[in-house]
Amino acid sequence: MKHCSHPHDLFVASHMVSNNQNLACFRCKLPLFGTCYACSGCNFYLHKFCFELPQSAQFDSHPNHTLGLLYPPYCQSGPCDACGESCNGFTYNCTFCNYNIHANCATLLHSQPQNERDQYVAAFFRHKMSEVKSMRSQLAGSMSGKKQQINDQRDELEYVKKMEMEAELQRRRHNLFMQQMKRASDSIDFMGQIGTSNYTYRYY
């Protein structure tokens, strides 16, 4: 059977492969378990749940548009709007709004819990994702402030360097002017000496 994220046919993986904790699902990056599909020649694996993800979907977090499923290498480089992490795996994307959400995050945020345990797990992860997003937002604000501070310091250093260069230029101009004045003075003294000598010569 085919999957849009892989060019080769996939088959149901053996029990040995499906329970190999050293192998990870291409979509969710979690270790393999349960029913899985595989392309042994490429070491490509998908959980059955991941394999059956819809190619398009609508979510309460972005109700105005239908989101399309993207997969490597076609994922967006921006962060997930749910958790703030980079979108480097299966991602639902809105081309109109540049909205991105990991397929994992979408599953956790929008799936309907079947029992109290699922409800608790979903609530826990939603809370954790909210905390992570808040921390990332604060960090981004702090980094922005530090970046502005660095830019201000760099501008100040450039201003100081400019003033130092201007001062050095003024010093060189002054030295050149003084040298010219000295040469002019020496020339005047020399001409005076010549004039005195001629006068004396004429006197005699």
What distinguishing features does this structure have?
single chain, 204 residues, alpha+beta, 4-stranded antiparallel sheet, 51% helix, 15% strand, elongated, DC1 domain-containing protein, repeat
Write the layout of secondary structure elements.
Blueprint: E1 11-12, H1 15-18, E2 36-39, E3 44-47, H2 48-51, E4 56-59, E5 62-70, E6 91-94, E7 99-102, H3 103-110, H4 116-203
Give the C-alpha Rg: 38 Å
For the biggest sheet, the summary is: 4 strands, antiparallel
**Stretches with pLDDT under 50, minimum 5 residues:** 199-204
Order of helices and strands: EHEEHEEEEHH
Short summary of the structure?
Residues 61-106 form the DC1 domain. The chain has 204 residues and is an alpha+beta fold.
Provide an overview of this structure:
- Helices cover 51% and strands 15% of the residues.
- The chain contains 4 helices and 7 strands; from the N terminus they run E-H-E-E-H-E-E-E-E-H-H.
- It has helices at residues 15-18, 48-51, 103-110, 116-203, and strands at 11-12, 36-39, 44-47, 56-59, 62-70, 91-94, 99-102.
- The strands form 2 sheets. A 4-stranded antiparallel sheet has the order 4-5-6-7, with helices on one face.
- The longest helix has 88 residues, at 116-203.
